[in-house]
What we know:
Layout lengths: L14 H4 L2 H6 L4 E2 L2 E2 L2 H15 L6 H10 L1 E5 L3 H5 L3 H25 L3 H13 L3 H13 L31 H10 L4 H4 L4 E6 L2 E6 H4 L1 H17 L3 H14 L4 H12 L6 E5 L9 H4 L3 H10 L10 E8 H7 L6 H5 L22 E14 L11 E4 L5 H4 L3 E7 H4 L4 H11 L10 H14 L21 H23 L4 H13 L12 H15 L3 E2 L7 E2 L1 H21 L2 H11 L4 H12 L5 E5 L1 H6 L2
Parallel strand pairs: 3-13, 8-10
Antiparallel strand pairs: 1-2, 4-5, 6-7, 7-8, 9-10, 11-12
Amino acid sequence: MEYNVTIKNINNYNYDKKLSRNSLSKTKTNNFKSGEINGSTWSDYMKHSINNQLQCNLTVEKANKILTEETREIQFNPTSQYNSLAEGDKIALAHLVKAGKILNDVFVKQEHERGFEFRDELKRKSDLGDIQAQKTYELYKIFNGIEDERKERTYLFKNIKLADGRNLYPKDIKPKELIDFLKANPHKIEEILSNNTVVKRINNSFEGIPYQIEYKKEYEAAAKELLEAAKTSTNKEFNEYLHLQAKAMLSTDPEDAYKADVAWIKLADTPLEFTITRECYDDKFTGKILEDKELSQIISEKGLDANSKDMIGIRVGIVDRKASKELADYKNHMKNFSKFLPFANTYEQSVDKIDPAIGSKQTLVDVDLVYMGGESGASRPGAVLAQNLPNSDKLAAKRGAGNRNVFHKDMRKSFDPEIRKRFLNELIDENQRHLYSDEADHLFTIGHELTHSLGPMKTAQGLDKKTSLGDWGDAVEEAKADLGSILMADYFVKIGKYSPKQMDEIMLTWAAGLLSQEPPSKSQAHGVRRVAQYNYMRGCGAITFDVGGKLKINPEKFVVAANSMLTEIIKLQLNGDVNSADEFFNKWFVWTAEQEYASKILKSMKPKIYKKFNPILADKITQ
């Protein structure tokens, strides 16, 4: 099951008997000024605690350098598209943005137990004229939180860091403690390791509280906005989806979440887009639990589900219907292409699973963004070009309902042409520079997102393919999508959809993108796959690049090398063995001399790596 509470509606859930909110918020606070904390002193305690903890880590000069030299603003202001909407859709769009802003608060709660207090105190000090607080508050809004995700982390506050399990596990929990508990209480595994529960320590036990309960206030308020939007939106199918999504937010029945996902997947030719993304990349704790072989064996033998925790993301946009129609043809090729993936005849793929009630769907839409919030709105420093959802741990994916690919026009246009020109001149072979293409990058991104729908859904033992690989799970999946996109482009050349020139452009553009400005941390999935892919492709002779030289691709070896690496990647997913993943990445995830050479050149160009989202239209229509 995706959720592991059998109740049908949160109103039937006796929360007070399970645990009380007051006891949760005050657990392990010990004493405050020599006395037990009670309701009347709790506010004083929080103020005292925040004043002691909330010390800005960055100097004004350092924060200002990031804001002025490393940050690029991306404006979400599709005015002409908005003006072309029907009046009812304009009203609906405002309600969708309001829902998104409410759900952003859920993300703040998911990240840190005092996220709200930290944010509000920063704003208070900013309003009082504290320059350091003002600069830090601007960075907070860019990060959508208290730190970024680079290898050399930028922490906004002294002595405050995000936990591996964020605020979805007890902050003092250690992996061994939870592993031992779950081995002794296997009946609690699905509740605790659900993608949709917050784990609380209650006495000597642990409880998994459904998001619908933990974030009841925000979910109810957001659901109300969705229902208001459905009153005026002009598209019947979209309105049905909004009703189902609102219901799913007020229910812990997994069937309600499934129905909402299916309705969203099937949307076609709608004027508006609203998505609660539910990605799991930020949870670095669950994977450590599943590295335990004995526990994984229990999960496998009992046929249980164990997944990383979802972080809430929100996307609101206006659909470019013309561009979306041009994307529609890709879904017709998914089934045939899936047969060419390594080991394809040994595992079940999402395109192999068909829900007889709805059939299999794959929709693709291009969107002008209006608002991005939560995990989707956290620029640390990356910004997502597109998303393929729902993920494989969701019930809709397990039943073969299909996927929806949403592409973000605003993101793929956010580059500096002068830096682009310098990059090509200084790092790419002069005889291949002409192959670098924005259109090729878009075609590659399409293939990347589509490949997320393909490949093994589980390990060969039936376990979650991501969490079984520990810290490497996300990087393996992103590498699979990248390499599958190269093979898909080659497939499209063979059937006449792409020209050989387009294939060359895709290969060169992707290879150029493997050069990084700085060595990534192990937790940066895209950074890890870039370094590993660069080394693998160079080792196969598909890429040539040396210190003092220029990067060049060898088209004759490129597809063969990509297929070879993809074979190893899918083998890792099927085996689900973290030790094999360690061995693979210890070999290929290595920062080399020529990568350092490219890094210094890239840094000298002073690219603006952070993206500041400015939702101009969203703020205007919700004033």
